Amino acid sequence: METLKSLFYILIFPGLLFSICFGLILSGIDRKMVARMQRRIGPPIMQPFYDILKLAGKENLIPRVAAKKTFILAPLIGLISVITISLFIPFYGIYFFSGQFGDIIVILYLLTIPAVALIIGGAASGSPYASIGISREMVTMLSYEVPLVIIVLAVGAKAGIAISGNVTFSLKVIEDYQKLYGVNLANLATLPAALAFLFVIPAEVGTVPFDVAEAETEICEGPLVEYSGFYLGIYKLTQAVKMFIMGNLFVSLFLGGINFGNTILNVLFNILLIILVIVVSVSFVRSVVGRIRIEQTLKFFWTIPTVLAVISLILAYI
Amino acid sequence: MNYVSSLPIIAIITPFIGAFLIGAISSNKKLLPAMKGIAIVSSLVSLVSLLFLTKPILLEGKVATYWLGNWMPQEQMAIGIGLEVDSFGLFTGLIITFSSFLSSIYSVTYMKEDNALDKYYTLFLLLLGSMIGFVLTGDLFNMYVMLEIMTFAAISLTAFRNNIYKSLEAGFKYIVIGSLGSTLILLGTVLIYAQTATLNMAQISALIHNNYTPVTILALAFMMAGYGVKAFLVPCHTWPPDAHMSAPSSVSMLLSGVMSKTGIYGFVRLLYMIFFSVGMAKMELLIILWGTLTMIVGASMAIIQTDFKRLLAFSSVSQIGYIIVAFGVGLSSKSSIGVLGTLGGLYHMINHASFKCLLFMCAGAVLHATGTTDITKLGGLSKKMPYTTILFLIAAFSISGLPPFNGFVSKWMIYQATYEAGYAPVTIIALIVSVFTLAYMMKLAQSVFFGELPKKLEEVKEVPLTMSITMGVFALACLVEGLFPKIISKYLLEPAAYSIYNLHNYIDVMFTKGFAEKMFKNKIPIPNMTYEMAGYWRPEAWFVLFIVILIGFIIGVGISLNFVKKNNIDTTCNFGDKYGVFTGGEKEEFAPIAGGDLFWGLRHNLKGYFGFLEKAHSGVVNDYVTWVISCTAVLSIYLFAVL
Amino acid sequence: MLINYIGAFIVMILGLYIMMSKKNLIKIVIGMSLVDSGLNLLLVSVGFRPGGTAPIFITDLKPGAFFVDPVPQALTLTSIVIGACVSALALSLIIKIQEKYGTIDADKVRRLRG
Predict the structure, then answer these.
(1) Minimal Cβ distance to A101: which of B446, B535, B567
(2) What's the ipTM?
(3) What's B200's DSSP letter?
(4) Residue B176 falls inside a structural domain
């Protein structure tokens, strides 16, 4: 019975099937919102499904100078790690494999693996455009890791000190804290951290204004320039599922603790909040601004979100 | 709990006897295979004798003692040289002998084209014997003598290939700075002897405890600076980048991966046993600050290098910073956090030895195959040397701390220990340095193994079988240490950590029981340590990952079997070529991006910071000496103000 | 014997000053051996006991014979040997550097830097 339940969690909800479908729907909603905000009609919401199906039918080309095994394995490793992360973030009241001591650190570690998979895939393709792309991807990762770590530490300190006297790294304790004291977004001490996290989401997902690693017009998609067919589809899937997990992480860190008493209603409310978060942080910004350069990315992330997160860290200890 | 045995003596003396045997038959050139055999057999004998010692010492907690020449102590004063092997010494000894054994097998194939190989094997066995002697002894001056033999052997091996200019310059800088470090250690030893009239470490710790005169504080400052030169802490870290770059690779892995551990062994013995400072907050602050500075400088210098082995040496400096921070947390007065810090430091010692040796072996394989280590001239070697590429990627993922390799486990323990001890900025800095580590490892991977193959390197071949087997053993060790941390912690780490804190036992086995209590006037509590304090491991998570990987593998293999016949159609036209890379219309050889340029943007942004660091490592010997002396001065001023 | 200690420390400080400021490589090696000499002087002075004789068994031992401390003298012998070896090794490296670089000025022997 336990293994059957685990298999259900892994394969159907929120594992393979649910995260892929919901991630693609999120990506479709994002494109539709951006188009409407720019006074266009835009593609239908199911468009990413059609894109992936189209890509699966195209021919897979592997360049002659590429390192073949690494070229094939890299996108798969990225997708697998992203799906594994989705099993560790709880919905309202349902914990799949989490609730233990060191959740957030495992999530942070696993979040670096898709970026590494992109870098390795680009390196294995042997193209000069890919080299530029992966150096930019590396610098972007360096820049957004700093505020992300401080945000997690700040929220963990605030929740842990109130409940157990010691800093906590478990999402269950953070949700218990929010049940007692109200959502973290309304709390003045963690509001700067929430704002900083909203800045980090577009950089993690890889959309404008922080998608300088995959700039379509400058370096022809960067690390993905030699990918075609099904492997390109897997990279696009990874990006979509990452949107889902970043939204879910925001909801459980800053908007948790709400309970309606009914499991289905809880899950639906969580899904609604994820859509709202992604629309606010990704679509609103994407429709109005352009892409910024790599040194501006570094300077931005090491000043504004870091300062906000440090303010939150200091306020957590007062 | 006393255990008198002659196995430590066998472990120390056998390499020395082997060295002299090789020296005796060295004039006969035809006996070269016999010399190689003597080297391998001597290191094997040392390894086996230390393995026989594990059962009483590690598993049952006894301590082996041996008074040389049978000069037993008279009237509670020690008059002979004593060997004392407890779990911490045995733990370090096992790391040393295991790595040296594999290095001796590796060097048989690697050094085939050099001449004067008889001198190489003599020096190699001298290095091995002195390292084991340093770790297993219990006498302060004996440690200095073994340290000097180690330094000589290492300098001679660094300057071994003396037809290349790099080796000579590196050897000279090493000898100036290294002998300065040894002089500082001897100065500290002399001052301690002037105060206590004995040289036995157990007795010194009993006599010095809690009465610090100015002479002993000065001695502590000098000895800390001296061991800082040996264990490359900033700012005494300027000799390893030159020395590890120029030595032959089978020796660089010993210098970088193993000799640094002996420096840390000396440091820990100094802080935890001779000058017992567990519970002093000011010492804890000093060690943690020192470790953090080392981490940052090591990682920042490593990103801007253009030479393979020099970059690996700087990354060694940064990882040693991690270990020192962990041992600094171990000095904390809250005993459960302190124990976690010590366990993390010990685990990172054994992890660092494994993956650093593997990285240097890969560098040696690349040098052996292509003849250069300049990464701006290399590229695209993964098609010709696939086995080396996989092993390099395993080591790169271990050093950056990705699961399921071993770097993840030890770095997790260090993060948790520093955060619970109240040093949250140190945790943040450690995480950022970890990302920097990933950055320069990816830079190496891209510029050496992936990318495009230059025309000159068309006919490189894969490394021979002997070298591949030794590299594979280290990679297997990395994987095993990452997957079974509970077993390693229970059998190797906890006895070692217990014996570090258990000063009473250390003193009692040399003298009689109860001697330490009379001297110390109170019993030092030994905290309870189990592995569950680290608390992150969930076996179900890995079951989950396994199923997901299985499904992904099935899908991937199914897709890739579709086009197994569409490979490598060799067309001669460069335009409209379906299997060439997209270069926007240019010819391929005019559009390369070398790996040295990978981080030029970052370097340009922070050019004040990186420029300052580059100018500080100016290459002039006098500057390096000035750094060491100023470090000593700062340490003495701080310790006089504090103690 | 206070003057011994002061003399030893002054010799060591002079040796360190030479190592820090002179540019000729042979002068740096001379500085190293000066530091060693100062250290040996310090080591021997530590073992001095006023009124004692040399610790050698000439005839058989009479009770009440007063020796100076023999242990630092053994340590000094070891240290002198080590100092000689260090000087020999460093000077031989300087000879090879002169062949390769053509100069023994520390400002010019700095191809490994950065």
Answers:
(1) B535
(2) 0.93
(3) B
(4) yes
Strand order in the sheet with B2-4: B2-4, B63-67, B82-85
Helix (H, G, I), strand (E, B), or coil: what is residue B568? coil
Q: Is residue B599 part of a domain?
A: no
Whether residue B510 is contained in a domain is answered as yes
Q: How far away is chain B from the Cα of C58, in angstroms, using its nearest Cα?
A: 22
* Contact (Cβ atoms closer than 8 angstroms) between residue B410 and residue B344: yes
A-interface mutation test, from B412, B536, B581, most A Cβ less than 10 A away: B581
SS3 B307: strand
Number of domains in chain B: 2
Instruction: Give dist(CA B409, CA B537) in Å, integer.
Output: 9
B597 within some domain? no
Q: Show the tokens assigned to B416.
A: 């948790």
Rounded average pLDDT per 10-residue block, chain B, 643 residues: 74 90 82 85 89 80 76 72 84 91 89 82 92 89 91 91 86 91 92 85 78 85 91 86 88 90 90 79 88 92 86 92 90 76 88 91 88 81 84 88 78 82 82 85 83 75 84 88 77 79 70 56 48 48 59 62 48 55 63 61 79 85 89 90 82
DSSP secondary structure letter of residue B594: -
Domain coordinates of chain A in residue numbers? 2-317
The answer to whether A and C touch (≥3 CB pairs < 8 Å) is no
**Cβ atoms C45, C8 nearer than 8 A:** yes
Shared domain check, B114 and B30: yes
Domain that holds residue B558: 545-592
Tell whether B583 lies on the interface with A, counting CB pairs under 8 A. yes
Residues B78 and B150 in one domain: yes
B560 burial via Cβ count (<10 Å: 0-12, 13-18, 19+): middle
Domains recognised in chain C with CATH numbers: 1-48+70-114 (1.10.287.3510)
Task: Indicate the pairing of strand B82-85 with strand B63-67.
Answer: antiparallel
Q: Is B567 on the interface with A (CB under 8 A)?
A: yes
Q: Are residues B527 and B552 in the same domain?
A: no
